[in-house]
Amino acid sequence: MERIFVFANEAGSVAELTSGAKASGASVALVTSGKTYGCADEVFAYPEEVSLVSVLSAVSELIVSQKPQLLLCESGSDGRLLAGYTAAKLGVSPLCDVMSLSCTADAVETTRLVYGGSAVKTEQCAFPAVAIVCAGTFEASDAAAEPPVTQINCSGSCSVELAGTSAVEASTVNLAAAKRVVGVGRGLASADNIPAAEKLAAALGAEIGCTRPVAEEEHWYSKDRYIGVSGVMIKPNFYLAIGISGQIQHMVGVNQTNVICAINKDENAPIIKQADYTLIGDVNAVLPAIIEKLG
User: Fold this and answer.
1) Residue from 138, 141, 134, 174 nearest 40 by CA
2) What is the DSSP pairing of strand 107-114 with strand 119-126?
3) Are 238 and 210 spatial neighbours (Cβ–Cβ below 8 Å)?
4) Helices (H), 23-130
5) Domain spanning 175-294 has what CATH number?
């Protein structure tokens, strides 16, 4: 392995992907509009205020011209767009939603969930290859010395006209990379119990996630916190499920967790059989007691 290109803009993704690429022993080139460079040996940058869509051709052509053996892309919308566009130019199919990745002398081997998370598929692809990598696949390591930065020449490459812009609420949650997660289900019973769940999460140093009904029907949390087969797939060291029944659509999203603990008043809930530890009780009594014990 001689050279790997990484495309990422989010700081956490930059740190993880460049670290994972560096571990292969290859030279790592980062393409980004961000200001953090992780373990990259060199950086190709495009303006932060510019949409990738408007410079897609220039960015993709740059990567293809450099002839990397492997392109790793973060799993957001920009990463998927660039991965598909560049893979088409290389005449290959992108490897999607990669959960693990290893390289040999002439190929890359990856795994990903299929059939709604009920099975794991292993794929092997000869170089050149393009992979869209899930957050948390690699461990981030300390940043390297400041690498040289080359500005990508994007002039004349835009075939998209900007019709307008609108402000959106920025998300600060990165559930896929969290090592501890507290999941909230409708068994919480009332939005009045959310402060207690959040206080417990803070005491545990955990992020808050939720089930689909909590996000889309109750609107207690935004959709970027929804865990499940059509939401975020997580693999923390510890997952605490509060008032979650354990339907397969949700459990697929947490099946890579090391330890699952469930709090539920229904001893026959499906999650009871899937959890490593269970506590049967009403959340109105259980949550305050746990918070008090944690100090």
Assistant:
1) 141
2) antiparallel
3) no
4) 52-66, 77-90
5) 3.40.50.1220
For 238-283, write each residue's pLDDT tens digit: 999 999 999 988 998 898 899 999 999 999 999 999 999 999 999 9
Strands 149-151 and 70-74: what pairing?
Answer: unpaired
CA 260/CA 217 separation, integer angstroms? 25
Mean pLDDT, residues 221-237: 89
What's the pLDDT tens digit per position in 128-154? 999 999 888 898 887 777 899 999 887
Check: CATH 3.40.50.620 for 3-151? yes
Show Cβ contacts of residue 41 under 8 Å, excluding neighbours closer than 6 positions: 27, 28, 29, 144, 147
Q: Residue 236: name the closest of 278, 172, 175 by CA.
A: 175
- Tens of pLDDT, residues 55-108: 899 999 999 999 999 999 998 889 999 999 999 999 999 999 998 999 888 899
Which of 8, 10, 7 lies closest to 174 in space, CA to CA? 10
In the chain, residues under CATH classification 3.40.50.620 are: 3-151
